[in-house]
Amino acid sequence: MVCNLRIEQSTWFKWLCVASVIIGIVLLTGAYDPASVSTGIFGVAAGLAAGLSYALFIFGFKNASAIGSPQTVLTVAFFAFCLILVWITDLGEALSVLTSPDVWWFLLLGVVGAGVSFIIYVIGVRRTAPKTASMVAMVEPVTASLFGVMLLGDQLGIIQILGMAIILVTITVLSVKQAG
């Protein structure tokens, strides 16, 4: 899709890197073992839609941030997101957050996790090529796994560590090749 839009040149090397990262993610998440995967076709479709949406998000924000301020871009994006979510949200459940004893945690996650991080993201995307931003995004499964290990006490097996190594080596090789 990105190649059809003539935003970036497709090469065999880039496709091999994408395949390598996918293999690393499969090993890291355990998706190679069908018995351990508890998602159906809807989960697979949602995952693929999330990946496509993220690609559109990166290129859309790159273009939008060149036109407006990060705060304006985020306001428009969050307003559009709210319009979409209002149709699929359980309003009773959403309103129960207001009376929850954990309301401050929800606010903290919303402000820091969505607000501040996206402002920093838009500022970074303004100064970064989309291919670099997508390359950095490939590290996300590794960081999520490491946070699980450090904060939640998760244990990683040899296959998961191998998956992390494949992802990190691929991103390193890709970034060195693009820098040189």
UniProtKB/TrEMBL annotation:
<feature type="transmembrane region" description="Helical">
    <location>
        <begin position="12"/>
        <end position="32"/>
    </location>
</feature>
<feature type="domain" description="EamA">
    <location>
        <begin position="42"/>
        <end position="175"/>
    </location>
</feature>
<dbReference type="InterPro" id="IPR050638">
    <property type="entry name" value="AA-Vitamin_Transporters"/>
</dbReference>
<keyword id="KW-1133">Transmembrane helix</keyword>
<feature type="transmembrane region" description="Helical">
    <location>
        <begin position="73"/>
        <end position="91"/>
    </location>
</feature>
<dbReference type="Pfam" id="PF00892">
    <property type="entry name" value="EamA"/>
</dbReference>
<feature type="transmembrane region" description="Helical">
    <location>
        <begin position="103"/>
        <end position="123"/>
    </location>
</feature>
<dbReference type="InterPro" id="IPR000620">
    <property type="entry name" value="EamA_dom"/>
</dbReference>
<dbReference type="InterPro" id="IPR037185">
    <property type="entry name" value="EmrE-like"/>
</dbReference>
<comment type="similarity">
    <text>Belongs to the EamA transporter family.</text>
</comment>
<keyword id="KW-0812">Transmembrane</keyword>
<feature type="transmembrane region" description="Helical">
    <location>
        <begin position="135"/>
        <end position="152"/>
    </location>
</feature>
<feature type="transmembrane region" description="Helical">
    <location>
        <begin position="38"/>
        <end position="61"/>
    </location>
</feature>
<feature type="transmembrane region" description="Helical">
    <location>
        <begin position="158"/>
        <end position="176"/>
    </location>
</feature>
<dbReference type="GO" id="GO:0016020">
    <property type="term" value="C:membrane"/>
</dbReference>
<keyword id="KW-0472">Membrane</keyword>
<protein>
    <recommendedName>
        <fullName>EamA domain-containing protein</fullName>
    </recommendedName>
</protein>
